Amino acid sequence: MKKVIPLVAERRAAPPFQGGKVVDTRGRPMRDLRISVTDRCNFRCVYCMPREVFDAHHEFLPHSAILTFEEIARLARIFVGLGVEKIRLTGGEPLVRRELHRLVALLDELGVEITLTTNGSLLAKQVRNLKAAGLDRVTVSLDSLDDATFKAMNDADYPVAKVIEAIEAAAAEGLPVKINTVVKRGVNDQDIVRMAERWRGSGHIVRFIEYMDVGSSNGWVMDDVVPSAEVVRRISARWPLEPIGANYPGEVAERWRYVDGAGEIGVISSVTQAFCSSCNRMRLSTEGSLFTCLFAQSGHDLKSLLRAGASDEQIRNEIAAVWQRRDDRYSEIRTAATAKQRKVEMSYIGG
Ligand code: SAM
Predict the structure, then answer these.
(1) Label partner for 28 (CA 20 to 30 A): which of 53, 83, 251, 287?
(2) pLDDT over 60 (residue 31)
């Protein structure tokens, strides 16, 4: 972490919790906060916001329902007081929210790591302001290097070259870049090795993500999942890989490095190797609800409390109580039947 932050005990005025950290019923601390700043996106990725569902009739949240930057920053400060060390801004597409750099500047005051996940389409224009405001790193999603495949997946006619331009613009600003690639069998799995080749030696880390049954609209079936073990096997057959340790407890991606020293890749295996036991992520939805699992069916309304004039201490106690009651472990108990359950959409809850 680049910034010096006060000790947890100093940050918490009236600690209502014993032993320092707030932990859930499975002993997991809260460390990462993902904030969805908008439920809107300019892409219609078939595995996330399929156009048939997110069409002209889909009702996105009205402006009055979404948290303001000041409200988000106030909540974020409270989360940091409860142990959060890293904040990821996401959505929807976070950069469709106007002047996102203003939020980054407010969050920068908290002294924790600030990251952003984006489809890259609006990044090149905004990256200088975001970096100047305090953004520490960025993750850009790119599912294929083949235009036809990529366009079929983003369903917005968006070309690969523009995303690569955004990645280069971010790197030119000195931001560490990761690249997220969701792998769907029969759709883009033929590109795995090519993708690895493109980013080998570039300093950017590509992370292959198993296609997940998030939300209720993507028609997920297990047969579409390419297990991470297969991804590693395919890349390793060309350039041998070896596993390396996590950067910090609860890191989502499993890290593998090229034996020849050309850098590393990551794999995110939520389906075939659930990592619920170390999950330390809390999610704040666009309209201010708390979600303790990406696969949740409902959240906990914080916005009402916030807008009813609650004190920081009341809000802190509410957040802590939600975390302390948490016992989710969806990916460990996933079956074909649970995959059909009505879950909150990823674009709303934040990816
Ligand atoms: N719009 C931004 C973007 O494209 O990166 C941020 C939000 S998006 C929901 C965050 C990440 O979730 C992206 O990398 C996306 O590819 C990934 N994602 C979305 N749906 C997914 C699914 N069903 N399985 C696995 N990853 C998914």
Answers:
(1) 287
(2) yes
Residue range 218-254, pLDDT digits in tens:
889 999 999 999 999 999 999 999 999 999 888 999 9
Whether residue 170 is predicted with pLDDT greater than 80 in this model: the reply is yes
Q: Whose CA is nearest to atom 13 of ligand 1?
A: 141
Residue 42 CA to residue 119 CA, distance in Å, equals 9
Q: Is the pTM of this model over 0.85?
A: yes
Pocket perturbation via mutation, ligand 1, pick of 184, 209, 345, 349 by most ligand atoms within 8 A of CB: 209
Contacts of 174 (CB under 8 A, 6+ apart): 131
Q: Write out the E strands in 22-136.
A: 32-36, 86-90, 113-118
- The rounded distance, in Å, linking the Cα atoms of 51 and 264 is 34
- CA 188 to CA 48: how far, in whole Å? 15
Phi, psi angle pair for 268, to nearest 5°: -120, 110
